[in-house]
């Protein structure tokens, strides 16, 4: 069961966008932005309050890849595994991140909720392959050593230059 503050935040967001079916996606985006994931229990609450079925709300949430029902870390790291990145050895970068953070294909978020590691089909930076993204910053020409250094810098709280 979610803390009551989640419902209060959802009410605030619904008031901002209007309690109407057409506001479903922006409301979901705001909730995910606030909590780094979309709590299923909260999505059911929102659906009821804006007049859509739970099935409709959940179908929208599962259709769009950017919505997640799993809590994510403060830093979401997306490792590109598109063709250009893959042939330029993105998988050793992913494996280095998994090893450094104690993660795997099935365990994607650290216990301290600092890091989530995911793979994506393409980051749209093929000329800079292999690439990874940390939140909104793209890191080009990655190596396992560079990826480990990024983690060390993030753990230290320092902002890092993607170059």
UniProtKB/TrEMBL annotation:
<dbReference type="InterPro" id="IPR002023">
    <property type="entry name" value="NuoE-like"/>
</dbReference>
<keyword id="KW-0479">Metal-binding</keyword>
<dbReference type="InterPro" id="IPR036249">
    <property type="entry name" value="Thioredoxin-like_sf"/>
</dbReference>
<keyword id="KW-0408">Iron</keyword>
<keyword id="KW-0411">Iron-sulfur</keyword>
<keyword id="KW-0001">2Fe-2S</keyword>
<dbReference type="InterPro" id="IPR041921">
    <property type="entry name" value="NuoE_N"/>
</dbReference>
<protein>
    <submittedName>
        <fullName>NAD(P)H-dependent oxidoreductase subunit E</fullName>
    </submittedName>
</protein>
<dbReference type="InterPro" id="IPR028431">
    <property type="entry name" value="NADP_DH_HndA-like"/>
</dbReference>
<comment type="similarity">
    <text>Belongs to the complex I 24 kDa subunit family.</text>
</comment>
<dbReference type="Pfam" id="PF01257">
    <property type="entry name" value="2Fe-2S_thioredx"/>
</dbReference>
<dbReference type="InterPro" id="IPR042128">
    <property type="entry name" value="NuoE_dom"/>
</dbReference>
